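Sequence only, no structure available. Ideas?
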Amino acid sequence: MPALPKVASPMAARCRRMLIVTALLLVPPLLTAADVSVIEYLEGDVQVESHGRRRIADFGTTLSRGDLVITGDDGVAIVRVSATSQIKLRENTVVAIDDVAGGGSVHLRQGGLFARAHRAATGRGFRVTTPTVVAGVRGTDFFVAYGRTIEERPDLWLCVNSGSVEVLIPQTGDLTVVNEGEGVNILAGLRTTQPRFYPWTLELNWLFDPEEGDVRDATDLDGAYADLLDQDYD
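Reply:
I predicted one. Tokens follow.
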């Protein structure tokens, strides 16, 4: 009778996953302008779309300029965008890789992401763009959520955990600097509120290293949105 194939136990699969994660996190970030971005960690439903074709993402999946990273209802992903920047995607988020040169750049189409960017030795600092706003940074941790709508155009929320972020609205030319501990709401992509502290930001999970604990962010953004409405739409 032929031997039955061996099936990895859940514990063995988990150990294998953690070994891969550990190895990826220990590799020095040596990406250059000619290199690609890399998915360093993921949980749940995470897909990559390249040239119009989707595939299931995995640890170590490489990403080129224009590729999309898409998380489902239970998805979370950590992507090293460039040698000096990382992003962590919440569930139901769509992000396009714009550039890996310098500090790197991504385009947030919907959902929320955390960004961790160190100062780039050369070139432009890390940037997150949306259809209405450009957020440029040098050495900071911040969170961005885009897509909930109160007027005809979606709002964007941004808060800074460390460092500072320049928020530019290209359509109006308005530029606002958001410092550590502050947040802003860009109303319908046209008007930035005054930077202030929002209590709900204390619930955000800023962890990027799965060896330090759960990296998934479970903040109730619907409740946070209600708080923003109370304060910013008076």
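The chain is about 10% helix and 40% strand.
Hope that gets you unstuck.
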